[in-house]
Amino acid sequence: MNALILAAEGFEDLELFYPIMRFQEEDFEIQIASETTEAITGQHGYKVFPDITLADIREPAWDMVIIPSAAHMEKFASLPITKEILRDFMELDRRVICIGNGLQALAMARVLKDRMVTTPKGMKTSLAHSKAILRDEAILFDGNLVSCQSSRFLPELVGQLLASMGLKV
């Protein structure tokens, strides 16, 4: 299995590194994509060098995409290429995992209509235009779409994802 992580400048460090480490333990191939392959810095000062740029993604060749929270999510989510990538993942029914305000990227891609999602409490107003069905749960699976309120629930999220793929937790 393989996974793509869309990382914006100011990413939430734990939401990026925890899935990487846990999925690598299960022999997943992980790639990080961002606007550039230059170093990007997380909210707690950790730097990563993305493997590929968003522009290098021609079609979703990954089993899933993970979108961690980021301080600059609105700017990242508003990029036409980000929207296109996420629309492709959704249309191809690939697993799309949003953590915290990573859900804003899907809202801006306009792919949440009639989909059930969970969000951080502070985002409910900003998602009103998305026509998503908002639920107050830690983690919510709706078909190929998985949403998680915050990094607080990462162990449970990854455990449920692995179990849904028939892997041991």
Could you describe the 3D structure shown?
The chain is α/β, with parallel strands linked by helices. 28% of the residues lie in helices and 24% in strands. The chain contains five helices and eleven strands. The strands form three sheets. A seven-stranded mixed β-sheet has the order 5-2-1-6-7-11-10, sandwiched between helices. Helix 1 links the parallel strand 1 and strand 2. Helix 1 runs parallel beside helix 5. The two termini are 16 Å apart. The mean pLDDT is 93.
Q: Give the proportion of residues in helices.
A: 25-40%
Strand content: 15-25%
**Spatial sequence of strands, sheet with the most strands:** 5-2-1-6-7-11-10
Radius of gyration: 14 Å
CATH superfamily: Class I glutamine amidotransferase (GATase) domain
Give unreliable regions as ranges: none
User: How would a textbook summarize the main sheet?
Assistant: 7 strands, mixed
Reading off the top of the CATH hierarchy, the class is best stated as Alpha Beta
End-to-end separation in angstroms reads 16 Å
Gist?
This protein has 169 residues and is an alpha/beta fold.
Itemize the secondary structure elements and their pairings.
Blueprint (H helix, E strand, L loop, with lengths): L1 E5 L6 H13 L3 E6 L5 E2 L5 E2 L3 E2 L10 E4 L5 H5 L2 H12 L3 E5 L3 H6 L7 E3 L14 E3 L3 E4 L2 E4 L5 H11 L5
Helix pairs in contact: 1-5
